[in-house]
Predict the 3D structure of the following.
Amino acid sequence: MNIFQAKFDPCIWKVVASIPLGQVMAYGEIARAAGYPGYSRMVSKAMGRCPDPLPWFRVVRSDRTLAFEYGSDSYREQSQLLKLEGIRFEGNKVIAASPLDTVDKMLWGPRD
DNA sequence: CCCTTGACTATCT
DNA sequence: GAGATAGCCAAGG
C-alpha cells in the first residue's frame, strides 16, 4: 500500500463526512481543512477511491460547479442527491453555503 | 528520469 | 462570464 494515501485518504474522508447536510465544500477547502493545503487534486483522487457511504456529492469545485462532465451519469446522480438535500441550482452551479462561510451568505437567496 | 494524467485552482484575456 | 494558461502534487507508464 502507498504510505501517502494511507494517511491522506482517511483524513480527507473524515472531513467530507463532517460536511453538514445541505452544505457543500470545494476540493481545496477540504484539503486545507484536513491539513493538506494545495492538495486539491489529491482530494479528487481520494474521492474516486472512497468505498465508504460518504456524502461525496457534497464535494464540488471552488466555483461551485460539479466536477463531472455536464450531462454525464455521475453528474445527474450528484445533482439529484444535492437537490434531495434542498440545494438549489443556478444553471450548472449549486447554491449552497460552505461550512466555512458566514451565516450572512446562507441568508442570501432568490426569495425575499 | 521524463512525460502525461487527474472528481483542482487562481489569474489573465 | 467563458476559454486559455500556468501552477499545483502524487501516481503511473
Remarks:
- The radius of gyration of chain A is 14 Å.
- The helical segments of chain A are 3-17, 27-33, 40-48, 73-84, 103-107.
